[in-house]
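From the pipeline queue, job 12 of 40. The input is one protein chain; the requested action is below.

Action: predict structure.
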Amino acid sequence: MNKQVQRPRRSVLYVPASSEKALAKIGQLACDAVIVDLEDAVAPQEKAAARARLAAVFSARPHRCEMAVRINPLSGEWGNDDLAAAIACAPDAIVLPKVETARDILEADDALDDAPAPDALQLWAMIETPKALINIGAIAELGRDPASRLTCFVAGTNDLVKDTGITPGPDRGLLLPWLMQMVLAARAGGLDLLDGVYNDFRDGDGFARECAAAAAMGFDGKTLIHPSQIEAANRAFSPSPEALAEARAIADAFARPENISKGVIALDGRMVERLHLAQAEKLLAKAAAVGA
C-alpha cells in the first residue's frame, strides 16, 4: 500500500462510541482527525450497543476529517467483534490499543486482507505499556515494510503512568525520556506520532504549554478529550509564520540558477545545506496540507 500519508494530524479527538450526542457533532468539528472510541471511553455494559452504532456514524460519511476507530484489544472478549464491525465501516484507520510486539500489528494486518479497499485501511498503534517501549524499535520497523498498514504511533501516556507507577511531575519531566524514545522510533519507521491526552480540559494554559512542548519534541499532533482543545492543538502543530518565511527563503535560494547544483550555499550570513532544503520543503508541504 502507499505509505505516504499527507493529511495533517495536528488535532485528533477521541469521541466515545457510546455517546450519540458527541457522535452527532463530528461533522461540525475543526479537528484533523477523530478516533471513534470503543475501548476506554465505553463501559463494559455498553460495548455491544456502541459497536452497533458504528454503522450509522460512518454510513453518510459527511466528515471532512480523517476517521479512525479504536477497538478493544484483540486478545480480549470484545476485540474481534470490534474489528469486524470497524472493517465493515471502512474507516481511514483502525487504532490498536495495548500493542506490545510487532506480532500484534502483523496479526491485525492479516485480519484486514479481506476488508473492502484493504490498501486504503491504515493501522495506528497505541504505545502505552512498558513492554511496548522495550519493543518499540521492532514495532516501528514495520512502518518501512511496503506491505504494512502501520502509519502512526499514538502515545498512551495515562496507561504508561498507571503501569509504571511514576509521578510525571511538572511538565511531564519523568515521561520525557519515553516520549523521546517514541519520537526516535517513529522517525526511524517513517511513522506519524501523536502525543497523549491532557486530562484537565479546563486548563487551557497548561494544555497549550504541553502542546508547544510536544511540537518542539517532534510530535505531529496531539490526541484530545474535548472539542475545546482543538483550536490550541491546531495552532501549536501548525508551522509558524516565521518558520514558513524561513522555509520559503531557503527553497527560493536553492531554486536560483546559480545554486541548483550546489550542496551548500550562504543565506543571510549563515551556511545552509541541502538537508535544510529538505526540512524546508517538508514544512512547506505541511503548511499546504493544513491549508487544504
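Job complete. Residues 1-5 have pLDDT under 50 and may be disordered.
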